[in-house]
User: Fold this.
Amino acid sequence: MGWLTRWVRRLGYLLNREAEERELLEEMRLHIDLEAAELVREGVEPAEAQRLAHVRFGGVERFREQTRGSRGVGWIDDLAKDLRVAVRGLRRSPGFAAGALLVIGLGIGATTTIFGVVQGVLLAPLPYPESDRLVRLWGAVPDRGSFQRSVSVPDYRDWRDGSGSFSHMAAYSTAISSAVLVDGGPAEEVQTVYVSGDFFGTYGTPALHGSVPDGQDELRDPWVVTLSHEFWKRRYGGDPSLVGRSIQLEGRPFRVGAVMPPGYSPPHPGVEVWLFMETVPQESAPHHERFVNIMQVVGRLAPATSLEAARAEVSGVARSLSEQYPGTNEGLTQVTVVPLKESIVGSVATSMWVVFGAVGFLLAIAIINVAGLLIARAGERRSEIALRQSLGAGRGRIVRQLLAETGVLALLGGLVGLGLAAVATEGFARLAIDLVPRASEVRLDAGIFGFALGLVAFTTVASGLFPAIRAAALDLAGELREGGARMLGAASTARSRRIVVGAQVAVAVVLLIGAGLMARSLQELRSVDPGFEPAGAAAMTLTLNTDVYPTAPEYLEFYHRILDELRAVPGVTSVGSMRRLPTRGAGESWGLAIPGVWEAGPTDDPSVEIIHVGGDVFAALGSEVVRGRAFEAADVDGPGVVVVNTAFEERYLAGLSALTTPIEVGGAPVEVIGVVENIRHDALDVPPEPSVYISIEQNPRIGMAIVARTSESPSALLGEMQARLTALESNQPISDLTLLEGAVEGATTQDQLLTMLFVAFAALATLLAATGVYGVVALTVRQRHRDMGLRMALGAHPGEVVRLVVRQGMIPAVVGVILGTLAAGALSRVMATLLFEVPPLDPTAFAAGSAVLVLFALAASFLPARQVARLDPMRALRDD
Assistant:
């Protein structure tokens, strides 16, 4: 009989159990009645015949048990009995049950939450058809150590046309842009990405409404816009008739070609509309030129094509282009090709796994803590277990019963943990939406529930097996005798509890030191000089509405009106603008040459970072012009002038003054009129790059962040900025209003999130470890009540007895601290990539983590021990 047949029959029996049991009883009753009738015919009295028939047949219950066993379902009955007994036992000990449930719930809840994050961010496939075939491509100049360069549109097209390893390849703009939407409602900025024609075909997701554009649409009808589902619902109320109609973007009509499904937003979260690259005016971005590297590339591998083969083929195309166009492609001889998912989540993979490891330590502490509670409870139930043994229960039966109790605790704790995980997962998704890639995809699903169920089983075995085996190994004869054997058992229980406490403390120390390292790293990051003064300044980010001001002279005139209006606000001391706020991204890359002083060598990047600024921007930022001067109004109509930062001077000028050295930027000679301190444009933990600041009046841009510094309240200035801009032009949307301090704070948000997680785990671990120490000392006080009373009756000072009791708790705690510190030292290098300016073996973090746990252990030991000081020796002796 096959296993499937056996299980089908068992299931059939369980489903029809009542009917089959009834049929079995009727059959046994028939046998007994027939036997009784035969005895009556032999002359036996009916009552006696019935009794004898029962005796000859045997026990009815025994036959019922044998029948269940033959059907293979006896273990289900045994399990049900064990669970019922377990539930009754836990109901009799509500305090123990509540404590264990809370500990298990916290451990399983935290672990499930972080596993859900790891699953959603790192493990789950991307939400596109055959997403494992999607790859990212970058230009690479290996001789200069540059492997992830943006790509020009001509280079992308040559890669696409010259490679048979890809079924699709597409390009898109390197960052989200803002386009102003004016379609009868309030004007607003929409988050826009410019793409090539095969973008949607590469990702492979069909449209929800309409049809996704293709490469032919880019050439035949470039004025097609594709909308995200979220934007379509928010702006247009989900009107399906919008497809095919026209909307106004940047003063030009676009036909709505498609609406994408919910959650679709490549290549960046938050994209609201996709436009073709062909709609960008050449005068704004000459994307048809090979030297303009402003695109990223994504591809879909052709069937049966490996990543290595695709990389080799497209790199061969790049080498040919390097030879064909030495002026723009010199050294660009390779193409970096990596899986798309790796390129998206690679920056957070290490931190996510480290956090998952940390929560694993927390779960270990919870399991150890529950094991300690079970050991203590088994010690209190020695008489009950001895009685069960005396009634014939074997060790296996007792182990099974105790494991059933642990299983009930773990299952109920798992339900508590799932509730906590549901709340925590939703909170994480909201908090990390802009910090962690794919955070919007984190959710509880069937896989996460399965993981939680696995944790329940693991917790049952890991926390319950050792206490159950230890309890079942009870010496029945010794337990039934009074005196020494009982004390010996109590001492054995105390030793086991001390081992458990030492293990808890060791794991907690590892988490505390990890939290200390993260806190020290965050402290160092916050102490970084950003190159400007955040306090006292407010900023608004906007894209000038070219629907109202279509030409450069017109929108520059409106820009100056904005600056003048803000200068008139009482308390404002200076106003200026820059392309992006500091710490929120750099500018553009232009070619650089310094004739006679510096030329790009084989390992040098021939470009420099260009930042567009205007007005009194350096004064508004609070950045110091260390030499020369800032831009002035007279510079607008003069020759090209720039300001550079000190990093530019240090890297390129070899001790010369930037103010007297001619340079060329973008192929044109410019004069350096000032040197400003280094401003951190990318991030606080990224060293300042050489930067060149160019006036927005000489090289206009419609996207900008306007900064105003005030001697009064910057918070109040935010509302005034919005009101004055609306008064100037009601159809001019603002994408962001923030204090400049917020820009700095936002640059540390991801580090704050990691630190917060570590601190939360460490705090829970410390609380659990301290609870374990408290339990050991409280158990010692309770079990040695008479002994302590005797010592004090013989003249021992209460303080001496208190110190003796505290020592019982501190010895395992100190051993745990030592072991935990050694373990943290071995594991700290795993965190090296997460730390900023902090060594993995930072003595401050190690000393603080160890000291905190020692203090908590001391407090947890002293609280129950102080009861000894109030002990009445005579009463203790009488009570015993």
Q: What stands out?
A: Confidence is low (pLDDT under 50) at residues 482-489. The two ends are 63 Å apart (CA to CA).
